[in-house]
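User: ok so my PI wants both of these folded by tonight, can you help

Assistant: No problem, let's get them done. Here's the first:
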Amino acid sequence: MSNHITLRVYNNSGYPLPAYQSKGASGMDLRAAISDPMVLKPHRVYRVPTGIYVECPIGYEVQIRARSGLAFNHGITLVNGIGTVDADYRGEICVIMMNLLDEEYTIQPGDRIAQMVVAETITAALSEVKSEDDLKPTQRGAGGFGHSGLK
């Protein structure tokens, strides 16, 4: 079984292609394709270009995830949690970032700002039922937001 697919990539960033930093890494680092330092002011949202364009095969997606070091050390996160780059998208990958802390953070040109993970997708067929009662019951039922019974 092969765990490899090929992504066709156009790199307009001026930096090397995204790359895995270790043999066991699941994400490739994306870099900020900016010409000047970019100051992320507290509690604001920013769109940071990467200069990377991908052609992802149908049945896969590219997920954009926060870098744990930026999140923990500087409060920099992705506004949309995990960004999805659909297989039919051909535009530039941009990272939607936010500074959660009360102090400014500066991104330098070429800084590693996010991770790019390739994941297989499943297309669901929906089968509509007439009422909530037509759904198979479970022990948990409709309890949510902390109602799983686990502590």
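One down. Here's the second:
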Amino acid sequence: MAAALLALLLLGPLAALLTSAGLALATLLLSVCLPWWAGLQFAPAAALAGLVLAYPLWSWRRLSAAAHFLRLEMENLQQQGLSMRLRKRPGESADFLERRINAVERASRQLRDLHHFVSESLQQLPSPSLVCDPEGLILLANRAAREHLGGDAQAPLQGQSVVDLLADLVQAGSRQPLITQEHLRDRSLPEHSEGSDAQGRSLLVQCKPFTDLANAGWLLTLVDLTDMRRALQQRDQAMNFISHDIRAPNASILTLLEMQRAYPGRMAGDELLLRIERYAQASLGMAESFVQLASAQAQEYHMAPLDLVALLAETTDDLWALARDRQVDLRITTAPETALCEGDRALLRRALANVINNAIKFSPEGSVVQCAIAERGPHWVLSVRDQGPGIAPELQGQLFTPYQRLHDRSHPTVHGVGLGLALVSTVVQRHGGSLEVDSDTGRGAEFRLVLPRGEGAPEGDENGSAD
């Protein structure tokens, strides 16, 4: 009996049944053979009765426990809103246990469908979303999260540590990681926190713990705020420009008029008109530069085949008078017969004019501004070199920031608001190219516009302009 009960405890139903039958058969054999072998005899009836009754009693208790468990589970599932059909349906077995098993199976199928629906819904979310356990191991991740983390959109992230994947996401001020193992384990992550990653993106991290689970996990959502932060920065720059830079010339005009009204005759009429004209032109130039930069950043580009050689020739012709007035020699040193590319002709011409105009303004009298076009693999390199004061390497990172003027002290007579090179950088980047600077203090500067080559032919009016 002890061996039979041990088999019922440790083995499966079939193995326990076979073990009980084997023990009953062994008991009968021992009762027959022991008197012949050892002169011993025992009554096998009690052992056989126990072995025969043990398995049915055990099966009844197990069946009763299983039925009780299924009843509790069905009640829990009904409380969670799942439909449970406990009544007998036509064609269904009358056995109550089988009906309950079928009901639980239907409920499990609904749960699997619900899990699949939740998983698919997570995949369709536009923001990167991650579901992880208390230790930070990822359980679910949508497609946006895989793309955000720089991996294959189809490669799963399950099993990886969210702490390791977001290790470069740090707070803006302290530069401390936003997500750490201690924060996850102690459930101390704030619901909303903002930081930046190694790629310079501003991210809002939304954290929500699963408080209704015994083994609580986390839902992490990343919201990219880079464009919004950039828009706010541009708004602040625009407000500063409007409130200070563009108001200054107008305030000077009003001051001159008030002085003339209060002290008539102190300033000659021609001198007054000349000063008013200069301030008005400065204000108009600032406003035009601001509008051009805003248009280059926001408007849709009209891409068409064009010839950079013809574009460079037209631009140098337009600026020849300015170069002559400043006694600067403007030359095209080297260029192929044609340099075809796809681009917005008006914006590229404006960007190129800004670069050449700066080279002329900062070049000393009698110097040379050299323009050239060369081929570099799949790109055209359009370079403009001057013999001006040059730019220190530590200042070159500020060249393309709006409203930055690096030569206010060295060249106070050169006017501007620092928007020309910002427009150049915007136009070149939106054409899929890059802008390079080669300069140092005292040895001039060379700006290189690197633009992708195109295979289309230039339009007829461009050829005519080049001629």
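Residues 45-79 form the longest helix (35 residues). The CA atoms of residues 251 and 279 lie 9 Å apart. Good luck tonight!
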